[in-house]
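re: ur question from earlier - yeah i can do the single chain one, its not a big deal. heres the input i used so u can compare w yours
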Amino acid sequence: MSHRSNIEAGHQLMEPELTVQFAGLKLRSPIIVASGPCSHEPCQIELAMSHGAGAVVLKTVVSDAYAYMRRWPRPRYKLLDWDGKVGGSKFFTLYSFEQGFPNTPHEYAKLIRAGKRLASIPIIASVFAKEPAEWVELAQLCIDAGADAIEVNVSSPHRPPELTIEEAIARIIRAVRDAINVPMIVKLAPSPQVVTHAKFVEELGADAVTLCNRLQGLEVDIETQRPILHRWFAGVGGPWAKFYNMRWVAEAASILSIPISASGGVLNAEDALQYILAGATTVQVLSAIIINGWDVIRDINDGLRHYLMRKGIATVSQICGRALEHLVKPDEIERWNGGPRARDWMYEPRAELKSVSTDADAHLRNSSVQTEVGAPVANVNIDRCTGCGRCVRVCQFYAMTIVDEKARVDSTRCTGCGLCFDVCTSDAIVWH
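and the output i got, formated as tokens:
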């Protein structure tokens, strides 16, 4: 009997399986606590496990060459565009500045040993150093303490002036790969070359890649005319980061044979599912934990199970990369002409184009002609329309007007961009 038949018959389906294989590690969930302030104390590792995380990546330990990174400024967090609500909006930015694990490599090893006593999930150590020998030394220290894998954070590697960025990365990866016998995960920086770099480190022996570290940005206080907080650049992240990063995950997944751990912009189960559908094997979460607490991990896991149950899918691994099957090449996209570009209205004065007609019948008659047969255009459900004028304000092609306190569409001017559909608060815009 099919899954659908079981559901229709009211039979109890088995709970979907969240277990995944990642870089040689078996994880009970694809949700990983990312390297950061939620993974630098033993109790946090225990909290990650008790709330359902599949693994935890520890805060990055730095070599003595970067000892200054072990000290953190105060304050170091600023929530930009925050609505003040628990859960937040989909548009806030977490502006923060933390660099290395706030203690020595010796204390980091103690953290790993304590974490192994407290938790049964894999512990992934994250390392950052200057010279290749220092990278190897840190990695070996972590392995000796019990780390299950090493995340090599080359998102900002030391680069002598005579080396390209690829050469700098290569000498680090080769040194660490030759020295360790546990999985090596390489964390990359967001850049136009990140997919190329992902393929590059795969060829150098990486077992997985993390895409990506956070962008650096700058916020200036216009009253003091100074950068905020510590007066230097800071990491910027938030829900918006998911969109550009998912593009890179999808591109990388199409050319890599090693798994991808996606990091950036995850607030809920929907975000995690989108990354998995785009090709990520695991999804790292940090800002959501900082903002909403540890329960977010359990919520995401529950959301994954409910989705799989609703879709009749047995394991989360089955949907990894499924959206990639539906990506098309730019020259394969179904396209229409850009709209009424050959018509004289493009050259009419703006005031005339934005004028409001007083003859609704004439306006509707003029709207009946489409520039291309079958081209989708906006239509207004008059019964739903409140006449608020939002669609008129955003229409860049002057296809929307208000007639008798209702929005009207001139289909000879509508280019089918879809913006009016999204800004309408009364669901009055439909497509035909």
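The chain has two domains: 3-326, 344-431. not sure if urs matches, ping me
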